[in-house]
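To start, an entry.
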Amino acid sequence: MSMPSRSSTEASDPTHSGPLLIWVFFLAMIPGSMTAQAPDVFLFDLHQLGSFGQENGIYAYSVGTTSCNIGDIELLWHANDSFHPVIGQEMYRLNDGLLEQIGVSWLKHGFCALSLTDCGACQATDCDTLGIDCSDPYSAGLNGQQSNLGPRSQVNAHTGVFPYPIDPTMPPFTNSVDRRLQVAEALIDPALNPNALYFVTGHYVTPDDALAGNGDNNVAYRQVTIGASPASFPLDFVAGAPTQAGQPGIQAWQDYDPEVVIEEVRVPGEGLMLLGYKVTDLGSGQWRYDYALYNMNSDRCAGAFTVPVSASANLSAVGHRGIAHHSGEPYDTEPWSSAVTPAGVTWATEPYIQNPDANALRWGFMYNYRIITDLPPTAAIATVTLFRPGSPSTVNVPVLAPVGSLVEAPTNLVCAQSASGI
């Protein structure tokens, strides 16, 4: 059988996946040893950028990615079944002390791994695997090829399992921005964002890497600038700002602002989320609390987020912001509601039992939450409520919050904002 070339986009539908993955993993056991060999895909470099113009104020981009297999067995890279990586791309804006996700793409389906030496002494293989210490580049053009972009909704980022080929019932692409990394004009227009910093990310998900428990180093971010031409607002890499390999976009918030704290939110037996937060003294007895929750690879997702707040706090603002799925993904796009209770402030989407397609915080997405109040920060515990049923139903995470003393008067909510702005 001939091997596919890097221009191939043909695919066929597999009939099973789980048993083969288990078989591959246990065949890799070293005889006489309790140590398992495993593949480990690592996003090494973001090396190229593509711009595709705009449709109705939505601009489209793509990011070239180079991955490495830093594991000790070959990584599966089959063109014609579901044993290959899918590659997501995102974009973030840091403005007025707040990092927000402003763009997201569908997923590039990998085919034909090359055997290059960016990551070391490559043990070369054929197209169907990425060899040990080998690197494989995808250009921005390939990662933005609309015909080979599939929906995120079909991928379990924790297990790496997804059906293949791409679901033919998904809406076809009909213009230059469909399925690509989409960003709204108002968020990138240099005239409207004179002091903003921008970052792009890549994210690999693949079954054998996920089965080996190596899914937390498959991301990278890099700083970019926005060109002045409104026809495409082209992106360019910032000189002297290399790829931050293995680091998600939320990490840029802390890297560019040392006052930011980032905590792991590890879902027991499942995936990883990260919570970033920053408290800003606004003067005149007011503090702004900014929280950003990023879902790296949890399929259980987040359905609610609670920050404890003192009963005596005067809340002048409660806000939430997220970005929407696009190009025909099945999920709702309603912003999360907010509620003030004696336990604090809770932001939530519809429960899974009411709407499995509710606007949960799904993998590769980051949502922002804000409180402005008259109480200074104190060490506290926030709660992430998981969206999909399972045990546990919640995960706690340390934060700074306006908790004050334990027994106080009822909260005075001056202004609550549940809209998508923050």
